Structures are given as C-alpha cells and as structure tokens.
User: What shape does this take?
Amino acid sequence: MESIPSGLSEQDVFQTYGMSGTWTTSGRAALAVILQHLINHGVNHVHLPAYLCGSILLPIKELGLTYSFYRVDHELAAYPESMEGSAVLLIHYFGWLNKSTTRIREEAAHESFHLIEDTTHAFLSDWQISSANSNLVFMTPRKFGPVPLGGWCSVDTEVEVASKETEAMVWQSVAARLVRGLYLDKQLASSDVETETFYLQALRAVELFLDHHPTYIGLPQIAFDIIAGLNWDDIAKRRRANWRCLHDLLDGQVDALLKSLPEDVVPLGYVISVQGRDRLRARLASQRIFCPVHWTLPNEVDPQVFPEAALLSNTCMTIPIDQRYDTDDMVRIAEVIKTEL
Ligand SMILES: Cc1ncc(COP(=O)(O)O)c(C=O)c1O
Assistant: This one.
C-alpha cells in the first residue's frame, strides 16, 4: 500500500488512451454512460456478441434497451448483422485486438451503426484507437490488478460524488483482497475455510452491489489513487513473461485458444480449451490453482443458436499468469496441469 500516492485528483487519471472521458464504479457503469449517450441520440437496440460476460446485460436492461445476439466463431471473430441506427458491441477478448476489428469499424462508418468497443481485456494492450476516434470505448482496470472499483468510458458526462455505500464497498473490496492475498501466499496444504469464506463472501457482496447499481458513476478517491498508483508497466511485463513461459512449457500438450503473443498484446490469462474442463478445473483448485471460466453464458444466449459460443463457454478456462506469479509458479502450474490432463 505504501507505493500508492495519495491526493491525486481525478484530473490526474482522467486522460486515458489519449482521450477524455468519464470514470465510473465499474465496466458495467461505464457501458451505461455510453448507452445513455446513445439513447439521447435515438438509439434503442444493442447487438451483442453471443460470447460475453453476463454482467454486460445489466445496464442494457436497466436502461430499457432491446438487445439481440450475433455469432462469434471458435477463433473469437465477430459477425454482427448490419443494423442501421442500432449499437453494436465488439469485445476484444483476452488482450488481443479482435480480428474482425478493421472490418467492423469500416462497416460502422459506412452502414451507420454505433460501434461500442469493450477494451476491458485489452486494457494494457496497444489496441490502435487512432483509427477509431469516432468510436465509443469502455473498459474496467479491475481485471488486471488489485483495483477494488473502477471503470472508464470515452463519453464525457457529469461526474457524481461517490455514494456512502460505494465508499463502503471500496473498503470492503480492499479488505477482502488483502485477506485473499495473505491466504493465497500461505501455500498451505490444508485450507483455512473461515478465511476463504470471509474473502469470498466479501468479494461476492461487492459484485452484488455492482449488479444492483449498474448505472452508478461516482468513484471514491481511494479507487483513483489505487489505479493511478499501480505500476502498470511491471504488471504488463510480468503477464507477458508468464504467458510466454507457460506457452513454452505446455507447447503441444494443451489447446491454447490464442497461439502466439504479438508485441502489442498484454494477455489477461493463458486460455486453454479442454474436454473435461470442469474436472481439470476442480483438480487444479484442489492444488490452489484457481482458473476462472470466461464465461458461463447468460441464460439469454441460446446454445442451440450459438453453438460456437456455447463450446467456448463449456471448454475454455483461463490459467492465471498475473503479476502475483513468477517463472517458478509457471513451472509448478505447468507440471500440475500435465499430471492432471
Ligand atoms: C469483457 C468484459 N467487459 C466488461 C465487464 C464488466 O466489468 P465490471 O465487472 O467492472 O462491471 C466484464 C466483466 O467481467 C468483462 O469481462
């Protein structure tokens, strides 16, 4: 915590990707600001990728927009239908610029739909915004570091003072993350159920709060201080090094969803596609290697209509490569995976 400077004003962290915009409590809320801006311009429908995080639906429903889904293939390419006057959401998955980006940006320019780009996973990647100045962008830095709350979008709107409840949630999240850090550091063979229950419940309560308030904007100062105080350069370097290390160690033994790491990509995790994913995931968890699933699809996405998205959702898991881990950890993780496959 010592490395976090205090007293930074919102202006100090206001310029993001060289653009001005608005900080919010979450990615959901950042999307809500963009949607409200579009509603003010007569938009009432959002076209979404079938492979997505369910929380994205919350601001859409809260603001009363209609929505539909489009196909995403097994390589994460996006195929939205042209819907004049609607909004189309494009997600840059796992740190890589979506391979359909150029085509969709051109379509947006010629066919007059409003393109919204979700750069949450590409938060630390160089994702060539310059060619898309007219596009609407949002993200949250919460997936790449110990950031309790925070989201950002490229639309300027009036900034609200953070509510008392939001302030309380920031501290709850910070406390839960500290306890989780200590707990995971201990590397105990047997787990301390009470500690684990405490931090899991506390983090769940924060998520529930964000779920229930997907349009809250006001972000407490401490969240700005944490975002501005983190060494994002180190975080980026460590993630890239860990990804490369794991890729070398697991080469040919697992099916990596993304098979090479371009210079300008900072990956969210090492994503593999595997039959029997849930069994492997449980075996790894028993050895304290916790691999999130991106994502369990929301009920609104029909797996019969979108089998490729369903397959991604049912077979992929994300092996952690974040800054808490080093090469030794990657070696251990790779060994455990090879044993459990
Ligand atoms: C790609 C992507 N965009 C947006 C969000 C929403 O972010 P937040 O949880 O900060 O609302 C998520 C959530 O997991 C996500 O994975």
Summary: The longest strand covers residues 66-72. Residues 1-15 have pLDDT under 50 and may be disordered.
